[in-house]
Write a structure and sequence with these properties.
- The complex is a heterodimer of chains A (255) and B (68).
- In chain A, 38% of the residues lie in helices and 16% in strands.
- Chain A has 9 helices and 10 strands.
- In chain A, strand 7 (125-130), helix 5 and strand 8 form a beta-alpha-beta unit.
- The radius of gyration of chain A is 20 Å and the shape is globular.
- Chain B is mainly β.
- Chain B has a single domain, classed as Ubiquitin-like (UB roll) (Roll).
- Chain B is built from 1 helix and 5 strands, in the order ββαβββ.
- A 5-stranded mixed β-sheet of chain B has the order 2-1-5-3-4, with no helix packed on it.
- The radius of gyration of chain B is 12 Å and the shape is globular.
- The N and C termini of chain B lie far apart (45 Å).
- The chains are: A alpha/beta (255), B mainly beta (68).
- The A-B interface holds A 16-20, 23, 26, 39-48, 51-52, 54-55, 67-68, 70, 80, 83-84, 87-89, 155-156, 182, 202, 204-205 and B 7-8, 10, 12, 27, 29-30, 33-37, 42, 44-45, 60-68.
- Strand 4 (37-44) of chain A pairs antiparallel with strand 5 of chain B, so a sheet runs across the interface.
């Protein structure tokens, strides 16, 4: 069973709450996914706008809510946002995100590492969204992150496993759970990373932007579970040439 | 007597001696969905009831929204 910071998870599919057509659809979809860890964002309130009902729907579910620091452009922003998240949800868990570039939303590795170190010192359980850089992931692990969350492709792009080879290296090297976060567009891609030994995936856009989010959530849940089962079963070795699976390939030659 | 505080840079008239704990009702928002910083320092929820606001104070008010 997956364990992050002494918290166990039955499902290895984590989800986000963005981009759903309505809070009710979001709630139904998260229930269908079986996800037990669900991300939320924060924003400044506007005195002239109605409040977002997302949290009301989420509080009806038996899930752990994970505030993110989206919007942070440097380490100082991220630490501030994490502290606000702790105020809002009473949790010391945080999904650390620092992405100053708005076009590709790629994480700033230097600021992410700085923020992670500070947040760990402040007692946070830090789950950093990061580049699929095996060296960076080791550094994040060394400063005390509870997991690492390398990207498959840019956030919301549904482009799939652009970083596949690096994710494989990260899966081999990590001693904390590895959660592939961002860019996964299809259940088959989630299954593929689970087969290689990734511990969990976080999927938001691919589910929320599907024509039928509820059934897509089920498809992702099945794919993640199947991929994990395959990994735990031990995939057979890969060979360049054919190796016969029947014992005697020439028994008809003497007829 | 009234004073003005600023919530996310928007003016909010309120009675003198307003406490931070009074602000959610002024905003017509549930307190459990809000976090505040006053003059750029986060004020813990447990301190709101004792935290007196002054004319011109700058409040940063945050809430949770959908996100990935």
């Amino acid at each position: 069973m997956l364990c992050i910071a002494e918290q166990t998870f039955t499902s290895r599919l984590f989800t986000g709450t963005g981009k759903f057509s309505s809070p009710a659809v979001m709630q139904q979809t998260i229930e269908a996914s079986g996800s037990e860890l669900v991300t939320l964002a924060m924003k400044r309130i506007n005195l002239h706008q109605h409040r977002d009902p997302t949290v009301d729907h989420l509080q009806q579910l038996d899930i752990r809510l994970l505030p993110n620091t989206a919007g942070a452009k440097d380490a100082a922003d991220a630490v501030y946002a994490a502290q606000l998240g702790r105020e809002l949800l009473g949790t010391h868990w945080v999904k650390l995100e620092v992405h100053p570039d708005q076009r590709y939303l790629l994480p700033d590795p230097i600021e992410t590492l700085k923020a992670a170190e500070q947040l760990v010192a402040l007692g946070f359980v830090v789950l950093p969204y990061c580049s699929a850089d095996p060296v960076l992931c080791k550094r994040l692990e060394e400063v005390g992150c509870a997991a690492v969350m390398p990207l498959a492709a840019p956030i919301g792009s549904n482009r799939g496993l652009l970083t596949r080879e690096f994710l494989q290296i990260i899966a081999e090297q990590a001693t904390v759970p590895v959660v592939v976060d961002a860019g996964i567009g299809k259940p088959s891609e989630a299954m593929a990373v689970m087969e290689m030994g990734i511990d969990a995936v976080l999927v938001n856009s691919a589910i929320a932007s599907a024509r039928q989010p509820v059934t897509m959530a089920r498809a992702f849940a099945q794919a993640v579970a199947t991929g994990r089962m395959a990994f735990e079963s031990g995939l057979g070795p890969v060979h360049r040439h054919a190796l016969p699976s029947s014992p005697d390939a020439d028994f008809l030659e003497h007829l | 007597m009234t004073m003005t505080i600023y919530v996310n840079q928007q003016p909010l008239p309120c009675p003198m001696n307003t406490l931070l704990a009074d602000v959610p009702a002024l905003l017509q928002l549930p307190a459990q969905h809000l976090a505040f910083a006053v003059n750029h320092t986060i004020v813990h929820r447990q301190q709101w009831a004792d935290f007196a606001l002054n004319h011109g104070d700058q409040l940063d008010a945050f809430t949770l929204v959908a996100g990935g």
